[in-house]
Fold these 2 entries.
Entry 1:
Amino acid sequence: MSRRIDFLGSVCKVIGGILGMLGYLFRFARLMLVPKAVLVAKLVAAESQLVACVDAVDRKKAPKPRFTLSFRLLWIALSKWLPGWKALAHVMQPATVVGWHRRIARFIWRWQSRPGRPPVSREMQALIRRLSRENPLWGPERIREELEKLKCEPPCEDSVRKYMVRPAKPRKPSGTWLPFLRNHLSQAWAMDFFTVTTLAFRTIYVFVIIEHERRKVRHWATTYNPTMPWVIQQLRNAMPFCEQPRFMHRDNDGIYGNGVPAFLKSCGIEEVPTAIHSPWQNPFVERFIGTLRRELLGHIIPLSQHHLERLLREFIEDYYHLERPHQGLGGETPVPYEAPDISGPTKLVSTPVLGGLHHTYRRVAA
């Protein structure tokens, strides 16, 4: 706050100095029209007063005069354009005028070479506010990824946060990925359960299978009563036409029993169970479930199993796979999308998803 006040004070001083210089120029133009006799009389009067001021200062009967910014700018201009100006400097030393000139030159140099990020255009500010207003769940990272997907050359996350409608909540740091996961992304899937409570306080179990390489949801299903045969059937549905991974990451849920490991082994899939109470060892599916809760389930109350399935289908197939960028994929979506090249002016069109909870954006010809 103090820096802003000092900056405003400096700006006011500069403006006052410029107005003073304009006043001097106006006086000079007016004196050009005055007869010479009158002009000589005014100069004698001014010089006599200046001599009296100098005599008072020399005798120390009066304090040292204070020089305004306009007075300093005037003498800097006279030092450049008036020959013999040093002989006219009675109240101050010529070296003082030279010091004023150096100070002004130093200020101009600092202003021209001031550090900082390039300014954000008004169009980009308006676009950031629009995305933030239409998607209150999005943070600065998510908005920046959306701008990159729209090929808008977005500013850094701090600048995005500055122009958002409301400040984003800080994200919790994710767990460390195991080297095994990094080395087997293309050959690994993960499965897990999570629960959702309906309006009638019934518990629905959601089963999810996600692909590690592209974060794509390979299969999902819901039920009120999960059993081991039901899980085995969902695994069959998730792997048609011999599309199966080499590794399957899972937790130690009791629903799996002995049948699920035996089924995976019969399919030639090596299971990778996590340690007890260690969900961070299965980060991809846990992160997807967290995203699902933050961006969908935390904002709706499903009325029934059918209602929940409709919402999940719209979120996963229409938004998560096609529109939601992922930081781990370099800002790409699980299903890659190539924006068409449009020549000429364009405009941004938004389409609401899930009743306006999220929006998708496309550039079309204007």
Entry 2:
Amino acid sequence: MGRFSELKIIQDAAPRSEEMRTNPEPKQKRVGKRDHPDYTQISVYIRKQPYHEAKRNLIGSDKDFSDLVNELLANWLSKGNV
């Protein structure tokens, strides 16, 4: 096989432009946290051990680390710990 034979297979499997026009897919652009106006990026220093443990515990869940921090911060503020 030639150097670009795999590229040819991929190219043959790709839909042609006329196929894309006849079957347009609805475009729903998801806005991530980076571009969402309600979020801001911050930087904090935390110890490695609890950070890695939290990341391990979040694997397989529907939350990410920023969701966890948001939840903890909201709980802390709701208790009047200011």
